[in-house]
């Protein structure tokens, strides 16, 4: 055999090994992507289940607190708050009027605005 035949055969052998190695690499990449996709789907499912459980728990807590009797002090506190809210705007207005400082005009501004 001549050297050119040997190099051709070596090229064929190395090409075959390279092709097989490439196929193996592609197969591993595909399998890893599938595993990652499955893990993502499982994570999404678990997060959805947690969200559903939290929603259910909050709904049950809200229903529980709605069923609790009102405190006897609650009505008295509500009445006091309403009285304070009714008084506050008037008291605040009076305080603002008493603390208001009169406006000062310069002589030049008075001459412009007043005819005398």
How many strands, which pairing sense, and closed or not: the largest β-sheet?
Answer: none
Quaternary structure annotation: single chain
Q: How much helical structure, as a percent, in the residues?
A: over 70%
Radius of gyration: 43 Å
Structural class, please?
mainly alpha
Mean pLDDT: 76
Summary tags:
mainly alpha, 3 helices, 116 residues, single chain
Compact overview of the structure:
This protein has 116 residues and is mainly alpha-helical. It has one domain. Helices cover 86% and strands 0% of the residues.
Structural notes for this entry:
With 116 residues, the protein is mostly helical. The protein has one domain. Helix content is 86%, strand content 0%. It is built from three helices and no strands. The model has no long low-confidence stretch (mean pLDDT 76).
């Amino acid at each position: 055999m001549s050297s050119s035949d040997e190099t051709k055969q070596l090229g064929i052998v190395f090409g075959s090994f390279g092709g097989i190695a490439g196929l193996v690499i592609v197969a591993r990449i595909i399998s890893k992507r599938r595993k990652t996709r499955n893990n993502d789907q499982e994570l999404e499912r678990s997060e959805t289940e947690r969200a559903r459980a939290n929603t259910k728990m909050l709904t049950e807590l809200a229903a529980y607190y709605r069923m609790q009797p009102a405190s006897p002090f609650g009505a008295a506190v509500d009445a006091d708050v309403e009285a304070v809210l009714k008084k506050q705007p008037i008291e605040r207005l009076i305080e603002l009027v008493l603390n208001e400082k009169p406006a000062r005009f310069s002589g030049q501004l008075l001459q412009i605005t007043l005819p005398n």
